[in-house]
């Protein structure tokens, strides 16, 4: 057990270091901000400790709270930097959905057109959520087609749709996760499993697409949206 924990620690430290390097590229002041938060938190608790006559106790508490505050601030800025790098990239919404948390099942690219506008599907206790990326005018037809399909297969399950973007009526990439988590939970766990089984039988765009063996032909085009 001790050997296992020892082997895991270098991996975690390396991951933190890589995350810091990635964040610093997009947010050069992240180190200064995190350090300032830690120093201020520790300093305030230490001053309070001297004022009330317990500098050691408040100093220890200040150190722990400073470490916690630094971790929270760093995590938020790292998340913001990651979203900034992903924004506008094809499949960014799928990456967010894959990390939404327990209780959700994500199927990327259930529909796509020649312009590479794409619809992803997430299933959870809130029902089915169709998340579209691409031109807001073009994705309407993709969403409409998927909604009709869902109505035929799971008519008793609510279907929500989200269009990723910064325009009116759209949801920014960084708010996709919170938007889904705020949806009312209306399905019991057993029904979520049934819905997933039905939809899994359909497959998805990638699994249903006949893929040639060997290298991808240079002139191959994406299939036309359904």
Write a compact overview of the structure shown.
It is built from eight helices and four strands, in the order ααααβββαβααα. With 226 residues, the protein is of the alpha+beta class.
SSE inventory with pairings:
Elements: H1 2-26, H2 30-52, H3 55-86, H4 92-98, E1 105-112, E2 118-124, E3 127-133, H5 139-153, E4 159-163, H6 176-181, H7 189-202, H8 205-208
Parallel strand pairs: 3-4
Antiparallel strand pairs: 1-2, 2-3
Helix pairs in contact: 1-3, 2-3
Question: Can you describe this structure?
Answer:
There is one protein chain. With 226 residues, the chain is α+β, with helices and mostly antiparallel strands. Helices cover 56% and strands 12% of the residues. It contains eight helices and four strands; from the N terminus they run H-H-H-H-E-E-E-H-E-H-H-H. The protein has helices spanning 2-26, 30-52, 55-86, 92-98, 139-153, 176-181, 189-202, 205-208; strands spanning 105-112, 118-124, 127-133, 159-163. It has a four-stranded mixed beta sheet, sandwiched between helices. A hairpin with a 5-residue loop joins strand 1 (105-112) and strand 2. Helix 1 crosses helix 3 and helix 2 runs antiparallel to helix 3. The longest helix has 32 residues, at 55-86. 23% of the residues are buried. The model is unreliable at 1-7 and 205-226 (pLDDT under 50).
């Amino acid at each position: 057990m001790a050997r296992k924990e020892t082997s895991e620690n270098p991996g975690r430290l390396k991951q933190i270091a890589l995350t810091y390097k990635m964040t610093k590229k997009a947010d050069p002041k992240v180190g200064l901000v995190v350090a300032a938060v830690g120093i201020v938190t520790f300093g305030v608790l230490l001053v309070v400790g001297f004022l009330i006559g317990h500098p050691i106790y408040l100093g220890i508490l200040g150190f722990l709270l400073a470490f916690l505050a630094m971790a929270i601030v760093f995590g938020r800025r790292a998340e913001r930097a990651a979203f900034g790098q992903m924004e506008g990239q094809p499949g960014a919404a799928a990456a967010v959905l894959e990390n939404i948390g327990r209780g959700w099942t994500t199927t990327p690219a259930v529909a796509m057109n020649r312009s590479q506008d794409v619809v992803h599907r997430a299933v959870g206790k809130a029902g089915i959520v169709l998340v579209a990326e691409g031109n807001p005018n073009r994705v309407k037809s993709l969403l409409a087609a998927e909604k009709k399909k869902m109505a035929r297969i799971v008519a008793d399950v609510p279907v929500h749709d989200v269009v990723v973007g910064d325009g009116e009526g759209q949801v920014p990439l960084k708010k996709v996760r919170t938007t889904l988590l705020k949806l009312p939970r209306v399905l019991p766990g057993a029904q979520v499993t049934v819905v997933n089984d039905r939809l899994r039988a359909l497959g998805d765009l990638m699994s249903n697409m006949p893929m040639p063996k060997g290298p991808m032909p240079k002139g191959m085009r994406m299939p036309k949206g359904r």
